[in-house]
Specification:
Order of helices and strands: HEEEEEEHHEHEHHEEHHEHEH
Strand order of the largest sheet: 7-6-8-11-12
Number of strands: 12
CATH topology of the largest domain: Rossmann fold
Shape: elongated
CATH class of the largest domain: Alpha Beta
CATH architecture of the largest domain: 3-Layer(aba) Sandwich
Strand content: 15-25%
Radius of gyration: 26 Å
CATH superfamily of the largest domain: SGNH hydrolase
Largest sheet: 5 strands, parallel
Number of domains: 2
Distance between the termini: 106 Å
Number of helices: 10
């Protein structure tokens, strides 16, 4: 091979190597700059949360359920949070949290009932039994049996499934859905929700039902385990974690989680109408520090109004420290539950049959 040809080939290989090194350096500089910018905006690498909660007796709070995925374990429990703060929870034989002492009503159960569906806000996580707003409403409406269907982690899809099953027995005088904007991601069980719920599996298996809209706009139901797949390097890189968060937000738009919640509420309203039950949508979430979820709650009230569904805003401003159970927990405080009860009582009193 002539020397000139050899030199040409070496030169071409050398140039390709130089270009590769040059491009690699540019990519590394870009990634480093992006990492610095993302960190300056307050983002950091993902840290897996370890839930520090002790439940006595037994160590578990939830058990599997064939249609809801999971439900409460019946019994009396003492729950102690990582801060040392403790509260007492009592679930009846039906797995639902009690709204009066188990031996507090003599004779048969009240014939007329008020059903309240919701999540941990309605269940009353971090509060004692008598501090929850369903308990307070029971005290104010002794002529009715107030049933607290709230369960930590539940979304609107769980409420619909509970409502459908409970109606196989008897119909209430009124059914209230305590809706929060954060239920949207629970109803479609996307990555954001899987990320949040995975650490809570230590309290019991949290298999989840979820819904999606089909091409015709109808609801399709499925089940999934609460497994969460991380993006590569997100435990070490703020940029990787930021990209994961951004993808999760796009996923919520693709699957139209809020529209799924609207469809679920319409189905609850139709089911109530079929059984002669007054159905009410109540917005329970508002915070000046979380305008997105606050907007979703107000938007759902407008949706209910447009569709002829009775509705009420029972929310309180959770950006105020006295409305959270701080510093132990971010859930609504006993003070907030007093306000929930006041607002819901004012709405229900003229609506309930005398």
């Amino acid at each position: 091979m002539p020397p000139s040809e050899t030199r040409i080939r070496i030169t071409r290989r050398g140039r390709a190597l130089i270009y590769a090194i040059y491009l690699s350096v540019l990519v590394l500089l870009f990634v480093a700059a992006a990492e610095a910018i993302v960190r300056s905006k307050g983002y950091g690498p993902w840290q897996r949360v370890d839930i520090s909660i002790q439940v006595d007796p037994g160590g578990k709070f939830f058990r599997p359920h064939p249609t809801l995925g999971y439900s409460h374990i019946p019994g009396r429990f003492r729950v102690t949070l990582g801060s040392g703060y403790a509260f007492d929870v009592t679930h009846g034989p039906d797995t639902l949290r009690i709204t009066h002492p188990l031996d507090g009503i003599d004779g048969p159960k009240q014939q007329r009932e008020v059903w309240i569906f919701g999540c941990s806000f309605t269940h009353g996580w971090s509060l004692n039994d008598q501090e929850t707003y369903p308990w307070l409403l029971q005290e104010r409406f002794p002529e009715y049996e107030v049933v607290n269907f709230g369960v930590s982690g539940y979304g609107t899809i769980h409420s619909l499934l509970q409502f459908r099953s409970a109606l196989e027995g008897k119909a209430p005088a009124i059914a209230v859905l305590a809706y929060a904007g954060l239920h949207d991601e629970r109803n479609t069980f996307l990555r954001t929700r899987r990320k949040d719920i995975a650490p809570w599996n230590k309290l019991g298996p949290l298999v989840q039902p979820y819904a999606r809209l089909n091409e015709e706009g109808g609801l399709q139901y499925s089940f999934a385990s609460p497994e969460y797949s991380e993006f590569p390097f997100m435990r070490y890189s703020a940029l990787a974690h930021f990209l994961e968060i951004s993808y999760n937000q796009l996923e919520a738009r693709w699957y139209r989680s809020h529209a799924v919640s609207e469809a679920l509420i319409k189905e609850m309203a139709e089911l109530a109408k079929k059984h002669g039950v007054t159905f009410v949508v109540a917005n329970i979430y508002a915070s000046r520090e979380d305008l997105y979820y606050t907007w979703l709650g107000r938007d759902m009230l407008e949706f209910a109004e447009e569709n002829g569904i009775p509705n009420v805003d029972m929310s309180v401003d959770l950006s105020l420290p006295q409305n959270r159970n701080l510093p132990h927990d971010m859930h609504p405080s006993a003070n907030a539950n007093q306000q929930y009860a006041d607002k819901l009582e004012a709405f229900l009193r003229p609506a309930l049959p005398k």
